[in-house]
Design a protein that fits this description.
Layout (H helix, E strand, L loop, with lengths): L1 H16 L12 E2 L4 E3 L5 E3 H6 L3 E7 L4 H8 L2 H9 L7 E7 L6 H4 L18 E2 L3 H6 L7 E5 L4 E4 L5 H9 L10 E5 L5 E2 L4 E9 L5 E9 L6 E9 L4 E9 L5 E9 L9 E8 L2 E3 L2 E7 L7 E7 L4 E4 L9 E7 L4 E9 L18 E6 L2 E6 L12 E7 L5 H4 L1 E4 L6 E6 L7 E7 L4 E7 L5 E5 L6 E9 L2 E9 L1
Parallel strand pairs: 4-5, 5-6, 10-16, 17-25
Antiparallel strand pairs: 1-8, 2-3, 4-7, 7-8, 9-11, 11-14, 12-13, 12-15, 15-16, 18-21, 18-23, 19-20, 19-22, 22-25, 23-24, 26-27, 27-30, 28-29, 28-31, 31-32
Helix pairs in contact: 4-7
């Protein structure tokens, strides 16, 4: 708990004092991203649906262990707001509680867990959204608690820890009301890295006004073959959206900024345009990756995922629970395909466990392919899921790395013994290891440079899939081995 408090306090200081630091909360006046979530009672809520019903939505993003969050909760300001002006009152305001720390438990919400300041459920009349860290990410929060108000026009503002009447008064102010005609364009961005051009970019046209939109022109500028303009006709009601895709965007630059604008009958030009940055380029890799993640004292904060160029998750980490433990996993990619590998940490310290005594463990992340290290992150490097990620874009080659092909395991699958051989002798002494898929070392043996073939008895191994790893200085070769 101490670590969490220290980090969030540090984040708040850096946000205020360091203008070029990468922490960046969602800007006041931004169009709020839509989300759908289920509360602890099984009821589903969609943000845009609540707005469409006529509510202004107040969102409390907190964590059960957060002292200032609990102190504000005890004031009853949001409880009174929901009861007086909510569904059972004047039906003007709807309150949502977002538990933004996914490492906490349902028991913590009820005040019986190990990371809690009290019973958050008791006497709370508004929905509680648990395991809602993804909403905290969408809203780019930098500290707990963060209180937002979402207005009728779909724009979001941080409104801090106000009293009941102060919150209500804010929802009644002019800038919080929907206009009659208000077209906007918003990002659909799920992937902002591409191996090469041309690529397709999709955005959304959204109606934030009370009157229907029937036509609009949407333009993109900034690419080699820009400007491009699309004319849209149809019917968009309040808070309805239409997807707009620009095909075959080309760029000769590795860093590309696209500017999107909408031209429509409009009473508000503030939200008629936005910019997105794209990275073009890749690190070449074979189709076989070895991912190693060594956990510090907070394994539940660590995660990674590999996403293809369509935004689909190809591979991702499990929920890590072991402290001071090496997890190793072999990942197979499709040949001649583009991927983005992203590594995250929930609280912004990366794997720098020793920065928070009494923890004495620094972790690390490493992704290798044959002899190449594609992405490596040490314990001192800081990054977070909310504010910034460590990532790299990969292109899986159809021709396998020669060194990877030089290591063979036969038979595979096997039940009694396996023969590990290398077509070329090692230049230096090496180490052979067999690991479980959770990273536990099952077997280890040193190999002299003159060794070309090794016979291993695997008859006593539990049936399952293992990872065979041979390391010679900076060269790492891996193979999956199946024991029957």
């Amino acid at each position: 708990m101490l670590k969490n408090l220290q980090l969030l306090f540090l984040s708040a200081i850096l946000t205020v004092m360091t203008s070029n630091f990468s922490f960046a909360q969602i800007a006041d006046g931004s169009l709020v991203p839509n989300f759908t979530a289920t509360d602890i009672n099984g009821e589903e809520y969609e943000l845009y649906d609540l707005l469409a019903q006529g509510y202004k939505v107040v969102i409390d993003v907190s964590a059960t262990w957060c002292g200032p969050c609990w102190s504000y909760h005890l004031t009853g300001a949001l409880e009174n707001l929901h009861e007086t002006y909510g569904p059972e009152g004047t039906q003007e305001v709807f309150v949502l509680f977002v538990e933004g720390d996914d490492s906490t438990t349902l028991e913590d919400l009820y005040g019986t867990g190990s990371s809690t300041t009290g019973n958050w459920v008791e006497n709370t009349p508004y929905p509680i959204l648990d395991d809602a860290g993804y909403i905290a990410e969408l809203l780019e929060i930098t500290y707990y608690p963060t209180i937002f108000t979402v207005c009728s026009n779909g724009l979001i503002y941080e409104t801090e820890r106000k009293t009941t009447e102060e919150h209500y008064q804010y929802t009644q102010e002019m800038e919080c009301q929907a206009l009659q005609n208000d077209a906007a364009v918003i990002s659909q961005l799920s992937v902002n890295s591409y191996c090469e051009t041309p690529f397709n970019s999709s955005i959304s046209l959204v109606n934030l006004g009370t009157e229907e939109i029937n036509s609009a022109n949407i333009t993109v500028e900034g690419c080699d073959n820009c400007p491009m303009t699309q004319s849209w006709t149809g019917t968009l009601g309040y808070l309805e959206t239409e997807n707009i895709t620009f095909n075959n965007i080309e760029s000769s630059n590795a860093n590309l900024t696209l500017n999107y604008t909408v031209d429509a009958m409009d009473d508000n030009d503030i939200n008629n345009g936005f910019s997105e940055e794209f990275n073009i380029g890749y690190v070449e890799t074979t189709t076989e990756l070895l991912i190693e993640l060594y956990t510090d004292c907070w394994p539940e904060e660590s995660s990674w995922e590999i996403v293809d160029d369509m935004g689909n998750i190809t591979a991702q980490s499990p929920q890590y629970v072991e402290v001071d433990f090496l997890h190793a996993e072999s990942v197979t990619l499709n040949a001649n395909s583009c991927y983005t590998l992203t590594v995250r940490d929930s609280y912004g310290d990366g794997y720098n466990g020793t920065a928070f005594p009494p923890c004495e463990v620094d972790g690390y992340f490493k992704c290798t392919s044959g002899a190449n290290t594609l992405l490596e992150i040490g314990g001192q490097e800081q990054f977070s899921a909310i504010n910034e990620n460590a990532n790299t874009t990969l292109m899986a080659s159809s021709s396998e790395d020669i060194m990877l092909n030089s290591l063979t395991v036969f038979p595979n699958p096997a039940s009694d013994q396996i023969v590990v051989s290398k077509t070329d002798l090692f230049e230096n002494d090496a180490t052979l290891e067999i690991l479980s898929l959770t990273g536990k070392r099952i077997f280890s043996q040193n190999i002299s440079s003159s060794t070309g073939k090794i016979i291993l008895d695997v008859s006593q191994y539990v049936k399952g899939t293992y990872l065979l790893k041979v390391q010679e200085e900076n060269q790492i070769l891996t193979k999956k081995v199946i024991i029957l």
